[in-house]
Design a protein that fits this description.
Elements (H helix, E strand, L loop, with lengths): L2 H9 L6 E4 L4 H12 L3 E5 L16 H12 E2 L5 E7 L2 E8 L8 E2 L2 E6 L2 E4 L2 H11 L19 H15 L7 H7 L3 E2 L2 E2 L1 H7 L9 E6 L5 E7 L3 H14 L3 E4 L7 E4 L3 H14 L8 E5 L3 E7 L8 H5 L10 H9 L9 H12 L5 E4 L3 E7 L21 H12 L5 H8 L3 H13 L3 E4 L6 E4 L3
Parallel strand pairs: 1-2, 11-15
Antiparallel strand pairs: 2-5, 3-6, 4-5, 6-7, 7-8, 9-10, 11-12, 13-14, 15-16, 16-18, 17-18, 19-20
Helix pairs in contact: 5-6, 8-9, 9-12, 14-15
Length: 455
């Protein structure tokens, strides 16, 4: 590493991957552990907090002594690369730390991770989560010591299998319990935490949800509490919310007129599924949904998982990380989840196309909140709109518009798969919808997205 590169690193200050130290001490080893538990980094010894340089005096025995101390106080043992550099006539030491493949790493039985430009002492939950991520697992795959197979409803499992067959256009020849073992929902005929949540027979207090219709912060006009299996809860929640929404009837040429709710049900469904799949079921807190005249608040115990930040979430620039892999995979098996990690973006797109303002997302250390608003998007008045009236479109073309409204980034291949037709057919349908000025493509075929002009 040349002097110019080092000076550039120093000029940028401390970050999530760079730490300055004036001398070697225990806080250096804490930082080594923190970097090992996140994405690695560099420790520059001989640099002040303000970037000023201090000459580090070392002997032939200094660095071997440091390496030995690091090895003896870290578990698993960490052996970083340590190099000496001369900058502006001063000696500084750079310790290079890579992300450790097996986590968590500790320093004298304390576990640290890197957050922004400082080290954070992890709590028990964070330690457990980082270990589960390392082994590509999650807590819901573990055996439930308090329940057995007798505590799940086989009829509910059979309903799940039927939906699986429909989704995958296949026939399952296995018995219910055998199929759950095959899918790792059970492990050697033993009930996992996830299996109990998904198919509980007589209620599950770990999954309690409170829903209320509020006229004010202190006035409740309707409420319901539920603690059933997750699939049943999904239907119950959506039914309760739908009961308390305003609806208008859209007159069309079809015998069955269209109902339009003041909130988009597809967005509500997406957020409720997100609650059920990503909730921290180890928390003693329950999920809460509050329906007001002008908004719907959905709170879930369990903050953002892994290293996901609110900034990355709202910029839709992140990789999916799942707190409950078994539950998420099971929902996906029957089509309740289409793509991992795309739910929030889809909610924003749905709200935009419904004509309401974007939802508000709040991330707290112990929970996650999404707020849907009824407020309409400000639309300029007296703008000429050239939209055909009573345009003849077939059912598949209507379905294409619906599919696009749920995912503006969807590809033609994916649309064809959903409609169960070939790509040429979809291209013809899209061409017609473009000609009718009902949809358009914004940007290139590879990097652009769809936009719905009128429905």
């Amino acid at each position: 590493m040349i002097e110019k590169e080092l000076l550039n690193i120093i000029s940028l200050g401390e970050t999530d991957t760079v730490e300055f130290k004036q001398s070697f001490n225990k806080s250096v080893i804490e930082t080594i552990v923190a970097f090992s538990n996140t994405k690695g980094g560099q420790i520059l010894i001989g640099v002040k907090d303000n970037g000023g340089l201090i000459n580090v005096s070392i002997s032939d025995e200094t660095i071997p002594k440091w390496i030995n101390e690091i090895k003896q106080t870290t578990t698993p043992q960490v052996i970083p690369d340590i190099e000496t550099y001369e900058i502006q006539g001063k000696t500084i030491i750079i310790i290079d730390v890579i992300e450790y493949p097996v986590k968590p790493v500790s320093y004298k039985n304390k576990y640290f991770k890197r957050q922004s430009n400082s080290n954070h002492l992890m709590n028990t939950e964070e330690i457990a989560n980082i270990h589960l991520q390392t082994i590509n697992s999650s807590w819901d795959y573990y055996i439930d010591p308090n329940h057995s197979i007798d505590d799940i409803d086989i009829d509910k499992v059979k309903v799940f299998i039927s939906k699986y067959e429909q989704k995958h256009n296949t026939s399952v020849e296995y018995e219910a319990i055998e199929f759950l073992n095959l899918k790792n929902i059970l492990r050697d005929n033993k009930l996992t935490f996830g299996a109990y949540l998904l198919f509980a027979k007589n209620g599950n207090f770990a999954s309690d949800i409170q829903i209320g219709r509020f006229k004010s912060d202190i006035t409740i006009i309707d409420t319901i509490s539920m603690n059933d299996d997750l699939f049943t809860q999904l239907n119950q929640i959506l039914s309760f919310i739908k009961k308390h929404l305003m609806v208008e009837l859209i007159i069309t040429e079809d015998p069955q007129h269209t109902e339009r709710f003041d909130y988009p049900m597809d967005a509500i469904r997406e957020l409720v599924i997100n609650m059920l799949v990503h909730r921290d079921y180890r928390s003693s807190n329950g999920s809460i949904i509050k329906i007001y005249d002008d908004r719907i608040e959905l709170y879930n115990p369990g903050g953002l998982y892994g290293d996901l930040t609110l900034e990355n979430l709202l910029s839709f620039n992140y990789k999916s990380q799942t707190r409950n892999k078994l539950i998420a995979d099971t929902f996906k098996e029957i089509g309740l989840i289409e793509k991992y990690g795309s739910g929030i973006k889809r909610v924003f797109n749905i709200c935009k196309n419904h004509g309401i303002i974007s939802p508000k997302i709040n991330a707290m250390e112990s929970g996650f909140e999404a707020v849907l608003y009824k407020e309409k998007i400000n639309v300029p008045v007296n703008v000429p709109v050239n939209v055909p009236v009573n345009v003849p479109v077939n059912e598949r073309q209507k379905e294409i518009i619906k599919i696009i409204s749920l995912d503006m980034d969807i590809t033609i291949v994916e649309i064809a798969n959903k409609c169960i037709v070939n790509e040429k057919t979809i291209k013809r349908d899209i061409k017609k919808l473009k000609e009718l000025k009902m949809i358009k493509r914004v940007g290139s075929d590879k990097t652009g997205h769809w936009q719905i002009i009128s429905i």
